[in-house]
Amino acid sequence: MDYGISGRVAIVSGGSRGIGRAIATTFAREGAKVVIASRTQSSLDETLAELEDIAPGNVHGIAASMTDPASVDRVVAESRDRFGPISIAISNVIGHVIDAAKEGSGPGAGTFEGMETDAYREEFTQLLVSSWALARACVPDMQQQGWGRICNIGSGVAREPSTHLPHLLPNVVRPPVAGMHRLLAARLAAEGITVNNILTGSILTERNRSYWEWLARERNTSVAVETQDMTQRIPAGRFGEPSEMAALVAFLCSDRARMITGQSIPVGGGGSAHL
Amino acid sequence: MDLQLKGRVVSVCGPDEGTLAACRRVLAAEGAVIAESSPGTAEAQADVVVAVGRSRPGSDLLEVSDPDELYAAWADVTNAVDAYRAALPRMLAQKWGRFVWVGSAQAKSVDAEADELAAVASLGMLGLNKVVTGEVGSSGITANAVLRGGMATDEDVANAVTFLCSEGAAYLSGITITVDGGVGSAIF
Predict the structure, then answer these.
(1) What is the distance between the alpha carbons of residues B103 and B127, in angstroms, rounded to a whole number?
(2) Would the pTM of this model clear 0.80, i.e. be above it?
(3) Quick check: A112 and B131 CB within 8 A?
(4) Of A32, A225, B11, B75, which has the fewest Cβ atoms less than 10 A away?
């Protein structure tokens, strides 16, 4: 199927690893001009080398924090200078990791009783301010072209807060992010711009793998035991792959999906209980 | 109906004086005692905490130019979290407590009264209510929300808040009641 995005300029935040990398790869294969942004130069370089093989001359990487609005503006300006006006914006910033020193400690873990309000603000910056800043910076280009795609890599907890995993902060901040995208969709639909949100389910990225290792240590079990509990709750009986996230995102960003906007769509092997 | 709120200590907080006053009035009419002391100490002795978000009618996320406006909206959530946490030890000890958030109906329906910043804050509180419910729900503590839309008056809102504080609402937690006169068209 021709997705009609060949030559379109796409920005993918958090594009050097995991789901972001899978999305950038799919866009590159579809002929889009892809800019990936990430804080870490080393992982950026590694992913750029892969992308260059797929689409020589059509990829670019920028080392930047995508949570600071001024830095996001800089990334968007640099992307525009390089490739032209932005048509596609994918926001994919991870949540606030409470104890960054503890490898794989997982984002936003803690209890309501113990969590300080500063951490709620941090999470709000990571998840909401980052995606707001990217949308705000890209919308003028999209309006000028009468065509745009904004897609946020959110989480299933936006609709069904997780009660079996100790992730307080995403439970509180993912719903506002989903709501923000719904509201932006209503404002932008008449201008050919769609805005959607992915409710990410259990996708096996490197980062998730290290999370399971941490959880197994915390609970004194094994990765096999912890993931068995989890996969039993997933009707498909397995974790998803990053490429399975990218498949939906690419479709939503295609010309074919022009009437699909304001949606929060789960990619979770049927693990969502919501009707 | 006896809502069995006689003698329950209520603390209300937030920037919306009209709604707060209505909540105080309706709860007091059911025999609840309004905590009078300053914020922080009021919550520590409260059986019921009602937190009200700020209304910014017509607020538009695309019109926001300074991220500080987003943080100001989010402060409604962190202020409520502070109030809830201050009240929690007493509620846990007595195995009874009520948290009620009053926010915007646009959190659930885009065609409700337009207030996008209030919708963002309210969605955070809906998530928080689920967290609180999961963590302390077995201690007789509930956390719910009243979402305001349409032409709802302060009194309409206060009536729903007071019901959620009642004994009869003990099995309702993590839920929202939209008070909008039927304006919002979303089914769920």
Answers:
(1) 13
(2) yes
(3) yes
(4) A225
Residues of B at the A interface (Cβ-Cβ below 8 Å)? 60-62, 64, 67, 70-71, 74, 77-78, 81-82, 84-85, 88, 106-107, 110, 116, 119-121, 123-124, 126-128, 130-132, 134-136, 188
Q: Give the pLDDT confidence of A57-87 residue by residue, as tens digits.
A: 999 999 999 999 999 999 999 999 999 999 9
Structure token digits, residue A230: 């989890």
Give B101's contacts (C-beta < 8 A, 6+ positions apart). B51, B52, B53, B80, B122, B125, B126, B128, B129, B143, B144, B145, B146
Degrees to nearest 5, angle at CA A89 with B114 and A149: 65
DSSP bridge partners of A4: none
* Chain B residues touching A111 at Cβ < 8 A: 135
Q: What is the ipTM of this complex?
A: 0.90
Q: What is the pLDDT of residue B137?
A: 96
**CATH number of the domain located at residue range(s) A9-202+241-266 in this protein:** 3.40.50.720
- Chain position carrying tokens 């490197």: A206
The alpha-carbon gap from B50 to the nearest alpha carbon of chain A, in Å, equals 17
Chain-chain contact of A183 with B121 (C-beta, under 8 angstroms): no
H or E segment to which residue B81 belongs: helix B67-94
Please classify residue B38 by burial: count the beta carbons closer than 10 Å to its beta carbon, then call 0-12 exposed, 13-18 middle and 19+ buried.
exposed
Asked if A27 and A5 count as a contact pair (C-beta separation under 8 A), the reply is: yes
